[in-house]
Amino acid sequence: MMEKIGSIVLLTISILFFGTPLLFISVIILHPNYVWLLAATVLAVYFLLVLRILQFFKTKRRKQVAVLIIVGIMIVPTVLAGQTYYESKLATVDSEVDIWAYHPFTKNNQVVQLDEISTLTLEGKMPRIDGATALYPLYAAFVEATYPENTDYFGRTVMVNKTPDAYNNVINGKVDVIFAAGPSERQLKIAGQRKTELKMTPIGKEAFVFFVHKNNPIDNLTLEQVRSIYAGEITNWSQVGGANEKIRAFQRPEDSGSQTALQRLMGDTPIMEAVKHDVVTGMGGIIEEVAQYKNYKNALGYTFRYYSTEMVQNNQIKLLSIDGIAPTKDNIRNNTYPVTSEFYAITAGTSNDNTTKLIEWILSPQGQSLIEKVGYVPLDE
Questions:
Q1: How far is CA 265 from the centre of its chain?
Q2: Mean per-residue pLDDT over the chain, rounded
Q3: What is the mean pLDDT of residues 74-83?
Q4: CB–CB of 245/297 below 8 Å?
Q5: Using CA atoms, how far apart are residues 95 and 110, in angstroms rounded to an integer?
Q6: 3-state secondary structure of 220
Q7: What are the φ and ψ backbone dihedral angles of 195, each rounded to 5 degrees?
Q8: pLDDT per position as a tens digit, 346-359
Q9: CA end-to-end span of the chain, whole Å?
Q10: To 5 degrees, how large is the angle CA 152–CA 155–CA 161?
């Protein structure tokens, strides 16, 4: 018996010696659900070896009991790890966009060019600019049309951030102008607290769009149905003519351009609490994250037309018509698509005169034609 106890002690020391560093490294580099699976595997192997040392497997029933215990140890971590792997493979409309392809004046970039020589060539101090990711291809085209050629603009003079960061930069005077959708109430409040006035100059039009998995039979929602879904009043696709599936209506982070657009669409109707992933209770609590456009078969998401159709080009989703009107450029142009909004050049008291010149040029026929050529809808149509 003492020999068996000694073997178990030696095994325990070995597992701790080799397993502890392995688990520590896995915590750093792996998703928590994979760490749980790894820990459960180590525990299961340890349990089996201990039983073998104790010569537990003498009868068929004992072997069955051991198998049941191992299955009990492994089942929850395996399910969690499988779910994590599945979700990591799902296509998302918010997947990475290659912004390097749009850096001004870099070799073989995808920046759209004017068909003629620009009527504006800026001299002196160049405006520092920032903006939403979805508008980067557009203001990169502005830069190549009006700035002197220089491959070192990116990161210093020309930046690209998400909408909340861009607003913070213009409010705090870190840039002269940003290109983005209109500000949220919180962003306006922050500007007011800083005694900063945001001057918003409309420069083009865009569609706020809703999308579903390509296999979802739904092709159209009414505006009221959209509002009811995001108010939590409609919860199943069967209520709007679809399959008997719960609607997973995903949202974006607060102060992002698309979340602000949803809030404006909802008006005084409160938006339901954002969807959260509930990992099995009792396994360390609930991991909360706001999902960004996960492409589940029963999901509903939203974004802006250009970003989804021109930049991400995800063929696993389809854009919905709203009130029977598709979010096409023509329908944005003629103002028949119900959720059309302007996007802006936004300043906050810049002292750089070239900023005004740049915005005036953007509003000129040549600037508006470049907006059209990039893929957005200009103001004058």
A1: 20
A2: 83
A3: 78
A4: yes
A5: 19
A6: strand
A7: 55, 40
A8: 999 999 999 999 99
A9: 90
A10: 145
Torsional sign, CA 186, 190, 193, 198: negative
Per DSSP (E only), the strands in the chain are: 129-131, 177-180, 199-213, 220-221, 248-249, 299-304, 317-319, 321-322, 340-347, 377-378
Comparing CA positions, the residue from 137, 138, 183, 192 lying closest to residue 164 is: 183
> For 112-147, b where at least 16 C-beta lie within 10 A, e where not — what string?
bebeeebebebeeebbbbbbbbbbbbbbbbbbbbbb
> Is the pLDDT score of 24 beyond 50?
yes
| DSSP per-residue letters across 225-263 | HHHHHHTTS--BGGGGTS-S-B-EE----TTSHHHHHHH
- The number of beta carbons lying within 10 Å of the beta carbon of residue 59 is 9
Helix axes 223-230, 257-266, angle to 10 degrees: 110
Cα torsion at 281, 285, 291, 294 (round to 10°)? -40
With b for 16 or more beta-carbon neighbours within 10 A and e for fewer, the 235-244 pattern comes to eebeebebee
Query: CA–CA distance from 354 to each of 64, 124, 180 (Å)?
Result: 79, 8, 19
Q: Are 319 and 238 in contact (CB under 8 A)?
A: no
In one letter, which amino acid is 86?
Y
**Rounded to two decimals, what is the model's pTM?**
0.69
Q: Read off the pLDDT of residues 32-67 as tens digits, 9 standing for 90 and up.
A: 767 777 888 888 887 788 778 877 777 888 778 878
Greatest pairwise CA separation for the chain in angstroms: 93
- Round to whole Å and give the CA distance between 244 and 249: 15
d(CA 284, CA 60) in angstroms, rounded, equals 36
Kindly report the three-state secondary structure assignment for every residue of 274-329: CCCCCCCCCCCCCCCCCCCCECCCCEEEEEEHHHHHHHHCCCCEEECEECCECCCH
| pLDDT at site 221 | 97
Cβ contact 317:295 at 8 Å = yes
pLDDT for the residue 133: 86
Alpha-carbon dihedral angle through residues 156, 162, 164, 166, given to the nearest 10 degrees: 30
What torsion, rounded to 10 degrees, do the Cα atoms 327, 135, 97, 103 define? 140
DSSP label at 128? P
Which positions ≥6 away from 207 have C-beta within 8 Å? Answer: 304, 305, 327, 331, 332, 337, 339, 340, 341
Q: Which two tokens stand for residue 381?
A: 């149509």
